[in-house]
Q: What sequence folds into this?
């Protein structure tokens, strides 16, 4: 593995930041001091032999140093692009992932997160391709901020969750 900091090497010039939709930041910051900018990882074959193929990933940041995107290029021609959108307080509001083979899109995956007034994750949604958005998880908290109930797997036909996990705490909070 090769890890580069502070600036983008010349061999990654074809892997620029891509804004997947207008919901995400249009540009990235060039202030990358003390930040990982690129990793290059050698690909192993399934039977363990070493190849000279690499997966190269570029990391892009906003002016606050938060990761707003990555672009990965694998040796088999697959490209993965990821964009993140943050709230004012730094919570991830949305994530969009696009997987391409050449210029043809294989799949697009979107995630959306909702937080309460205390920045606790309340709901997380998932969307694949042009399908409808699905509620994956819903969290309920007590007055101390501890998770009291976590519901997962919403059945769209019955509007009931497939699983509910109840949490209980002793007086010490564990």
A:
């Amino acid at each position: 593995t090769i890890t580069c900091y502070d600036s983008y090497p010349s061999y990654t010039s074809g892997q620029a930041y891509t804004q997947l939709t207008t919901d995400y930041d249009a540009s990235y910051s060039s202030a990358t001091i003390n930040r990982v900018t690129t990793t290059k990882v050698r690909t192993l074959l399934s039977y363990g032999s070493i190849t000279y193929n690499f997966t190269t990933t570029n990391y892009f940041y906003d002016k606050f140093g938060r990761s707003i995107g990555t672009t990965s290029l694998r040796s088999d021609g697959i490209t993965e692009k990821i964009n993140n959108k943050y709230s004012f307080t730094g919570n991830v509001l949305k994530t969009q992932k696009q997987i391409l083979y050449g210029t043809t899109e294989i799949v697009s995956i979107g995630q959306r997160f909702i937080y309460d007034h205390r920045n606790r994750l309340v709901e997380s949604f998932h969307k694949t391709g042009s399908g409808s958005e699905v509620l994956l998880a819903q969290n309920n908290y007590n007055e101390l901020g501890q998770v009291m109930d976590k519901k997962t797997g919403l059945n769209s036909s019955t509007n009931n969750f497939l699983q509910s996990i109840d949490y209980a705490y002793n007086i010490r909070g564990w």
